[in-house]
Specification:
14-stranded mixed beta sheet, mainly beta
């Protein structure tokens, strides 16, 4: 079974464009980037990491502050912001196609986002761990695509707007924490693995919260997993 998982992991990495960088790692380096907030009505945040550890939370008056650590110099993240009318687009990505995390290579992003700016979050990571504490943000949508790894998504907080959450996973484990007092509609499908739901009740092929029908604002969650466990927890 382990060999099957390994072969599937390699396949997922290949399909996701995650190519192992053959160059040697060096001393651990650190860098920080920040982007000032403006009066955009909506900001799309695109995060593209080949492999590593990703952390996203709120906690800055700027649009974004990012602290990065890496021991392959060419992996220094690229940060770009552009604006078209009242729509802003913030992109943080691992540069080029030299992606991977093997042996002593280290790659970590710690991002803080503004909790007053309406945001659409789009996350792509090929392999690694992602911890996304987003419940305090002004979310308008969340899309996550992961190859091989572990996702911990926390959406607990005061819900002021309805939005959709879409998660597509390859191999690994996805845990989604949802606010128990919010209107929740959740669907989950896994190829090989378990689906565990707590704090929601099942209706047909989906799950809803007790407050779903009467709630003014709602979160609609769609999780598609490949191999691994899916946990949906309303607490």
């Amino acid at each position: 079974m382990k060999s099957v998982y390994l072969l599937l992991a390699v396949a997922v990495l290949g399909l996701g464009g995650c190519v192992i960088d053959a160059r040697h790692s060096g001393p651990l380096e650190y860098s920080s980037e920040s982007v000032e907030a403006d009066d955009s009505d909506l900001v799309r945040v695109d995060l593209n990491m080949g492999a590593g550890d990703l952390r996203v939370t709120e906690g800055t008056q700027k649009l974004m502050r990012g602290d990065f650590s890496y021991n392959v110099p060419s992996w220094k993240p690229e940060v770009r912001y552009r604006r078209n009318g009242k729509l802003g687009t913030l992109t943080v990505e691992q540069p080029g196609h030299q992606r991977g995390n093997v042996g002593d290579r280290k790659y970590e992003w710690d991002l803080q986002l503004n909790n007053k700016v309406p945001l659409e979050l789009d996350v792509h990571f090929g392999a690694g761990k992602a911890r996304l504490d987003l419940g305090s943000l002004q979310l308008r949508g969340v899309t996550i695509e992961m190859g091989v790894g572990q996702l911990d998504l926390d959406l607990r907080g005061q819900l002021k707007h309805s939005y959709n959450v879409s998660i597509h996973g390859g191999i690994g484990e996805a845990t989604v924490h949802l606010p128990a007092d919010a209107g929740i509609f959740a669907e989950a499908q896994g190829g090989i693995g378990s689906i565990n739901v707590r704090g929601l009740h099942k209706e047909g092929g989906h799950w809803v919260s007790e407050a779903y029908e009467r709630a003014e604002n709602k979160i609609r969650v769609d999780v598609q997993g490949g191999i691994g466990a899916i946990h949906l927890i309303a607490d």
